Amino acid sequence: xxxxxxxxxxxxxxxxxxxxxxxxxxxxxxxxxxxxxxxxxxxxxxxxxxxxxxxxxxxxxxxxxxxxxxxxxxxxxxxxxxxxxxxxxxxxxxxxxxxxxxxxxxxxxxxxxxxxxxxxxxxxxxxxxxxxxxxxxxxxxxxxxxxxxxxxxxxxxxxxxxxxx
Length: 165
Prior knowledge:
- The structure is a single chain.
- By secondary structure, the protein is of the alpha+beta class.
- It contains five helices and four strands, in the order H-H-E-E-H-H-E-E-H.
- The longest helix has 27 residues, at 3-29.
């Protein structure tokens, strides 16, 4: 196993474990569902949101067929990303792909276990009398965003690993 591939697998494992641990703790130990919204800072709250769609709540679907289609799409995407990661030549691209894979698997586990993805992080800002909220997300979503940013940065650096197979 090449060092970049090992780094990608470690990144995937860390993203997956942190994502699932945070969700399990929030659901079953902290009981976020019972507590409701919890103000952590003036700009960050913990909330419980069940996302039956994909990123940012797109394609919301409560049906068994819709859920199965999303899981199938996610499985195909994870396999394609794993192939890309195995062929990658730079550590940064491989870590980025690992983060995306770990995040995707974390959200897929939620969909299998609960029928929806567990989202809990809410950033917001007050400007005058108006409050602007960002989308509610989780650590898997954050790992995916960081992974995509790493791939973009690697491609701008001129790395050849950013080319998908």
